Amino acid sequence: MSSSARHPSPLTGLLVNAAELLRRPGNWKDVEIDVESKHFEFDDPRLLPQLVGIHLHLECSNNGIVVSGNVNAQWHDQCCRCLKDISGVAVGEVAEIYQREITDPDAYRLESDQLNLAPMVREHVLLAVPDTPVCRPDCPGLCPVCGADKSTPEGASCGCSETPVDPRWDALRDLGSQFPE
Ligand SMILES: [Zn+2]
Ligand SMILES: [Zn+2]
Q1: Residues 21-34: pLDDT tens digits?
Q2: CA of 149 to the centre of ligand 2 (A)
Q3: Of the ligands numbered here, which is closest to the C-alpha atom of 81?
Q4: How far is the CA of 160 from the centre of ligand 1 (A)?
Q5: What is the pTM of this model?
C-alpha cells in the first residue's frame, strides 16, 4: 500500500486539480482512494453498493497527463454454466491520457485544468467485470437435457444423452408435446 494521504472527500478525490501537474513535464501525483460506488452511477446489477479502490499515478508529459495504475471493485453474478451465485474482484488496468486540447482520439479532456477521474474509473471497472464468469474453469455446467448440475454425483450420472439437441427441432418437439400420445 502507498503512504499517500487518503482524501477526506470522495468527490474532491475524483476531481484532481491539474494546474500544479501541468506546470512542468515530470510533475506527478499519486491518487490512492476508496470511493463509494454511487459516485460512478454504474447502473449494473453485478456491482452492488461498495467502495471502489483507486490506485493511480498521474504524471505530466509533453502530450498531456498520463494516468496509470489500476481500479478495482467486487462483482456478483451467476456462473454462466451452472448458474451458481459467484463473486470476484474486477481489476481494471489503467493506461490513459488526459489532454487540454485533444490530439489523441482516446484521450480524456481536461476541463479548466480539472482532471475528472470519475468517467475513466467507471469505464475501466465496467470493462473489467467478466461477461461470462465461471465458478471454476472446469465447471461442467448443467445437463442440457434435464438441467441437473453435472458437478454433483447425481447430476454427473443423470443418464441423459450427451448429444446436443439441434435447436431447430425444439419447435417441432414442443408442438409434439402438445399432443400427448
Ligand atoms: Zn459453475
Ligand atoms: Zn440429464
Answers
A1: 999 999 999 999 99
A2: 8
A3: 1
A4: 19
A5: 0.78
